[in-house]
Design a protein that fits this description.
- The protein is α+β, with helices and mostly antiparallel strands.
- The chain is built from two helices and four strands, in the order H-H-E-E-E-E.
- It has helices at 2-16, 21-78, and strands spanning 82-88, 91-99, 105-114, 119-129.
- The chain has a four-stranded antiparallel β-sheet, covered by helices on one side.
- Helix 1 (2-16) runs parallel beside helix 2 (21-78).
- The protein is elongated.
- The chain starts with a helix and ends with a strand.
- The relative contact order is 0.12.
- The mean pLDDT is 77.
Length: 131
């Protein structure tokens, strides 16, 4: 069982090596899923929880990446700020793309709504070149 847990963590690290929201989501999902699974079901629960967390985290991260790229292309083509919202698992994310005037570079920022503070909190920000 230890070997399969090590394999699962290594798979999550491979996902995170690409420095995308998919990779970060996969790594965070694996860690949280394994922790919750271990609390409720020992080593088998940790493996199953980690696997489910890996899949869920990667799926949510992939959607954030897709929305980020799409918003950046739209912002660059139309030379305007583009804002999109994604709701996943009772969490709302906002993707905002801001083009730099006279450039092919677009800054995208992902924020998450925090209901307890009633504010948007920055999750990530990156500047990319759009073709």
């Amino acid at each position: 069982m230890k070997k399969s847990m090590i394999g699962l963590v290594l798979l999550a690290l491979v996902f995170s090596a690409c420095q995308t929201a998919s990779g970060t989501g996969a790594l965070a999902g694996t860690a949280v899923g394994a922790g919750v699974g271990a609390a409720f079901g020992g080593s088998k629960g940790a493996f199953i929880g980690g696997a489910l967390g890996l899949i869920a985290g990667a799926a949510i991260g992939h959607e954030v990446d897709r929305q980020r790229q799409d918003a950046a292309r739209t912002a660059w083509r139309e030379n305007r700020v583009v804002v999109r919202e994604i709701t996943e698992d009772d969490a709302t994310y906002r993707v905002k793309a801001t083009p730099q005037v006279g450039s092919t570079r677009v800054t995208t920022t992902v924020t998450k709504w925090n209901p307890s503070t009633q504010q948007w909190e920055t999750v990530s920000s990156q500047t990319q070149t759009v073709q």
